[in-house]
Amino acid sequence: MLTSSGRVPLEQAELIVRVIAKEVDADRAKDALFRPIFGMLRRCCLSRLHNDDDAEDVLQETFERLVRHLDRFQGNSKFSTWCIGYVNNVAREHIRRQQRVRDYEVISGVGSNDDPDDLGDRVEAGEIEGYPDRNPYRDPEARARLNEYLNMLTDCQERICQDPKTEDPDLERCLTNGWIEALSIGAWATGQEIADACGSRLNYAYGVRDKLLSCMKAKLTLR
Fold first, then answer.
1. Between the chain's N and C termini, which has fewer beta carbons within 10 Å?
2. Is residue 209 part of a domain?
3. Is the domain of 162 the same as that of 115?
4. Is the pTM of this model over 0.70?
5. Is 76 within 8 Å of 7 (Cβ atoms)?
6. H or E segment to which residue 53 belongs
């Protein structure tokens, strides 16, 4: 079934099956499966987080989830594309946790001597109450508008990456991830930072941004 759509090579499908089945050489199969896309996934993490330590944390958690959920892969897309989806989810959760900790520190006066990881664990365990929402602060209408905008951007990303004229879908997904994440958290990011994180040329990064903005403009015009 994994190879029926033509998106998953037979050798790759065999590695996936060996890892899921936890065969004797499962560790070797896991290494052979993920090593070719490790660099791409790491660049993807960097494009979302712009920080080596955070990117490494997210990458490690992503691989743990990928192995745990490998049996969910149906072969309806390239394996690398499916893995990037997990990078997106884990990075988004990581950013939200960080933002909640920063918001709490500002509002509650928790000092810089507190361990952010310990603080996050205490919040998630419910030991700290009154935790503020992520920006936009406790404004349901503003949050709804932001979510709608981000959903539109994500839809534009899929259109761009699935366009038959797209030369390198994985690279463009990495670049669009960088632009979308910068917009979603209100962070300032230069095209050079996003290009470097994805291993891309600067003019290519800006070209992908222009595609994203053109798609958004068309969507907003049709509303």
1. C
2. yes
3. no
4. no
5. yes
6. helix 52-68
